Amino acid sequence: MQPITRGVAGLAAMGVAGVGYASLVERFQFTLRRYAVPVLPAGARPVTVLHLTDMHLLPWQRRKISWITGLAEHQPDLVVHTGDVIAHPDSIEAAVRAFGPLLDRPGVFVLGSNDYFAPKLKNPALYLTPDHKRGLASTPRLPTADFVAALSAGGWQHLRNARGRIRAGGAQLEVVGVDDPHLEYDRYAAVAGPADPTTDLTVGVMHAPYQRVLDAMAADGARLLIAGHTHGGQLCLPGFGALVTNCDLDRRRASGLSRWWPGAGSAPSSAAPPDAAYLEVSAGLGTSPFAPVRFACKPSASLLTLTPRG
Q: Tens of pLDDT along 16-32?
């Protein structure tokens, strides 16, 4: 065999091995990420927030359902779900079963595009282009209203372009959320306003972390912003990170904890003002049924411990 032929064969073998690992191993390596976030008033007791997102749940995914149910052992003071839960018309019962005892905890949620529209087969490379949202008009709808009713019956607040208050541990939180910015369903202007000074913290919740929403919420005084949607890039390169975020958020914030302030998207991290908000973006727990791979980006949920500032 010629050297060039051996090189091509070697690259092909590496590619096959990489795809096999991404589809058969890493996408099942569910991980709980932990972050300490100093956003509460001085002297406040810590508050734990479990952030779930992008489950893309199918009724037969027993391993994922069992892992999510097991998160109840952490007894979070608040559960925040940022959308893309169901991926099949029959996924609602499975989702309620997965949340299980978590529905007994205080909770809030918003919807993502895949809670409205069923996934369909498409070229994965389209996610690298600005045209990937085309064609939704011909996409089958999911039973969104039934899903919202099921979570609301469990006591969780639906923050669809809404503002409210919730008690979490020993803290009184103001929560403000928008419908999916990726579908341009967000209407933050309808609920915009200064952070409530009678609460301990204002938390902004959204599915897709588009800069227009992040900027507006941070300008109003939200000091914790929580989002999903990016899948952490889903396919990442070691030493480089996420290839895309599937929105206008920069790649370095594709997952994890960072700082955000109005205009942060075009400024270096070192320019963060002292009162900048904290932005937590979770890589989420699932994949599209038609692209069931993850590479260098394990499926994850987040456990945030809110602590006093300073």
A: 444 566 556 777 799 99
User: Which residue ranges make up each domain of the chain?
Assistant: 3-308
DSSP state, 6?
H
Read off the pLDDT of residues 241-260 as tens digits, 9 standing for 90 and up. Answer: 899 999 999 999 999 999 99
Does the pLDDT of residue 57 top 70, yes or no? yes
pLDDT confidence of 8, banded at 50, 70, 90? very low
155 in helix, strand or coil?
coil
Element (H, E) at 141: none
d(CA 51, CA 211): 20
Domain 3-308 = CATH 3.60.21.10: yes
Q: Of 140, 134, 138, 133, nearest to 119 (Cα)?
A: 140
pTM of the predicted model as reported, rounded to 2 decimal places: 0.90
Give the integer Cα–Cα distance in Å for 43 and 200: 11
**Pairing mode, strands 171-177 and 236-237:** unpaired
Is there a contact between 307 and 37 (Cβ–Cβ < 8 Å)?
yes
Burial 34-53 (b: 16+ CB within 10 A, else e): eeebebbeeebeebbbbbbb
